[in-house]
């Protein structure tokens, strides 16, 4: 295949990737967006294989790699529950970072195969690209592994605060920059250059783990988005080393869209975007939360909830991670349909960071065929709670905690929340009175207008449907 035709095909795949992102920005067009992305990736992969023209042994390795990787991916996609999707995404980000490190290492050890020079003289710009790709890739790898461990419950979701962590992180970052400068300048010193390369990788691996460890579990949705951005920039850096237009375009799209999404989510949590990027996010708290007094809790049953909602004129449903764990979205839609049949106005309110990754609740509701026009984001529906008869909260703990609005001593103070406590009646469906992912008590549990519906969320909703 001629370079001109390959360039045109890469451009076509890049356009399809842009259309894919556009389609994924709304639930109604997400399927079409996925199709555009799949077609674009197919074109990019085939173009690369045909352009490279590997020998017979090379084709065997490629086909074996595609078969093994594709087989593992297919099995994982088939078996993974929606509740485990965030940690799966984090795991995939780690693989993208690791791939960037391996490609950079391959370019360093066999530069002639990449057309960037000889073992004794590699182009200076290629060395810069190599160093950046390896550093960002290594940082993404360990950061994603830590995020996976926290999301999967293999590590505490609470912030792990190391002494002098900012000083350590700052020192590692400076060391990383110095090593990269030294690496680029060590031309024609093969052994020294290779030694410096692996020092860069080790320093970045350490930095990646250290900047994610202090981040609390409640902030993990932003971390997943941030690591998505990092993996994109790692891929773009390696794309320059390989001279692959499609990889550069794809990496830049992923990197920039991940950064934009992180910024939007930071606004939704009233956090500093710069502190997220630098890894200082979620490490500090405002001290112990205020005393809740005698902590009197009003308990209710499915029959109580059915009576209150059936006689209401308006109900707002607030889904959270508890709904995802119980897989209650289908029963919830059935409940909403039953209420609508009784003439009740039903809406869904989604917090930007509900669940464990961006858009988690939207995906689950779409899976249950909840009408898109019934689903509202925080800024569009928050003012409606004061005029709402019943707010039905199903597993959304931290994003409904009034302490974020009213208690300056709370660790989550300042984070925008859904003002469910302003509704006339709040029904809170939860397995127990335990704290949420942020590890703090929810002041909403003890308010006079709140009724707790303790038990499995799916079973509770099914009982409410029967009572209706």
| Shape summary | elongated
- How many helical elements? 18
Could you list the spans in which at least 5 consecutive residues all have pLDDT below 50?
280-292
State the secondary-structure class. alpha/beta
Mean pLDDT across residues = 85
The residue fraction in helices comes out at 55-70%
| Largest pleated sheet | 6 strands, parallel
* Major sheet: arrangement of strands: 5-4-3-6-7-8
Q: How many individual β-strands? A: 8
Number of domain units: 3
Question: What Rg is obtained from the alpha carbons, in whole angstroms?
Answer: 25 Å
What is the string of SSEs from the N terminus onward?
A: HHHHHEEHHHHHHHEHHEHEHEHEEH
Protein architecture, described:
This protein has 468 residues and is of the alpha/beta class. The protein has 3 domains: 1-79; 86-277, no CATH class; 302-467, TPP-binding domain (Rossmann fold, 3-Layer(aba) Sandwich). Helix content is 59%, strand content 7%. It has 18 helices and 8 strands. The strands form 2 sheets. A 6-stranded parallel sheet has the order 5-4-3-6-7-8. A two-stranded antiparallel ribbon has the order 1-2. α17 (403-406) links the parallel β6 (390-394) and β7. α1 (3-24) packs parallel to α10, α6 runs antiparallel to α9 (220-242) and α14 (329-341) runs parallel beside α18. The termini are far apart. Residues 280-292 have low confidence and may be disordered.
């Amino acid at each position: 295949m001629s370079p001109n035709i390959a360039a045109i095909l890469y451009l076509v795949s890049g356009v399809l990737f842009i259309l894919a992102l556009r389609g994924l920005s709304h639930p109604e067009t997400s399927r079409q967006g996925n199709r555009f992305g799949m077609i674009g990736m197919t074109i990019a992969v085939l173009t690369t294989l045909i352009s490279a023209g590997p020998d017979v042994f090379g084709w065997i390795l490629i086909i074996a790699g595609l078969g093994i990787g594709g087989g593992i991916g297919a099995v994982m996609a088939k078996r993974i529950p929606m509740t485990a999707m965030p940690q799966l995404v984090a795991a995939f980000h780690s693989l993208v970072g690791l791939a960037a490190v391996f490609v950079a290492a391959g370019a360093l050890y066999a530069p002639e195969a990449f057309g960037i020079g000889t073992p004794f003289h590699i182009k200076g710009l290629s060395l810069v690209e190599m160093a950046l790709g390896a550093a960002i890739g290594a940082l993404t790898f360990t950061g994603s592994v830590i995020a996976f461990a926290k999301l999967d419950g293999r590590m505490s979701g609470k912030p792990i605060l190391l002494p002098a962590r900012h000083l350590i992180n700052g020192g590692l970052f400076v060391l990383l920059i110095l090593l990269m400068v030294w690496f680029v300048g060590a031309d024609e010193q093969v052994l020294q250059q290779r030694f410096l390369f692996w020092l860069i990788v080790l320093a970045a691996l350490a930095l990646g783990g250290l900047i994610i460890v202090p981040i609390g579990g409640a902030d993990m949705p932003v971390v997943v988005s941030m690591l998505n951005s990092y993996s994109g920039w790692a891929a773009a850096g390696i794309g320059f080393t390989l001279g692959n237009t499609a990889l550069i375009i794809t990496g830049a799209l992923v990197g920039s869209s991940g950064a934009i999404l992180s910024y939007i989510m930071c606004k939704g949590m009233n956090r500093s975007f710069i502190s997220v990027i630098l890894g200082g996010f979620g490490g500090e708290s405002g001290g112990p939360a205020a005393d809740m007094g005698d902590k009197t809790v009003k308990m209710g049953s499915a029959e109580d909830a059915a009576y209150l909602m059936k006689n209401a004129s308006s109900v707002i449903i607030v889904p959270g991670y508890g709904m995802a764990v119980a897989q209650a979205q289908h029963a919830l839609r059935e409940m909403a349909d039953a209420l609508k049949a009784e003439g009740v106005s039903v809406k869904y309110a989604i917090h930007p960071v509900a669940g464990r990754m961006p858009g988690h609740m939207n995906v689950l509701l779409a899976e249950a065929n909840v009408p898109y026009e019934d689903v509202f984001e925080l800024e569009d529906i928050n003012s409606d709670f004061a005029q709402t008869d019943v707010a039905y909260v199903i597993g959304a703990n931290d994003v409904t905690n009034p302490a974020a609005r009213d208690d300056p001593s709370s660790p989550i103070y300042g984070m925008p929340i859904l003002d469910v406590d302003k509704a006339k009646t709040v029904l809170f469906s939860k397995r127990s009175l335990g704290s949420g992912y942020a590890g703090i008590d929810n002041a909403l549990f003890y308010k006079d207008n709140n009724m707790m519906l303790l038990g499995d969320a799916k079973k509770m909703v099914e009982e409410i449907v029967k009572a209706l």
